[in-house]
UniProtKB/TrEMBL annotation:
It comes from the Bacteria. This is Bacterial Ig domain-containing protein. Residues 3-62 form the Bacterial Ig domain. Pfam families: Big_15. The lineage of its organism: Bacteria, Bacillati, Bacillota, Bacilli, Lactobacillales.
Amino acid sequence: MFGSYTGNIKFARAYVNGVAQAIGGEFSLGRYDYYIGDAIKQKDDIVEIDGRDKNNEVIVPKQRIKVE
């Protein structure tokens, strides 16, 4: 998945239907790209992502992502 962000986010963790996925993602110049693999099965899956700083501390709480 991809999108935009603001702040000092360096990593993220995604959650699919409440199940935590790997911490990762690429964050640069206000755009992010986070590979989630085949964890999303259906359009009605609940996908959330949080933002983390360089110390892996959550600085942006989970936000729901629209699955298209």
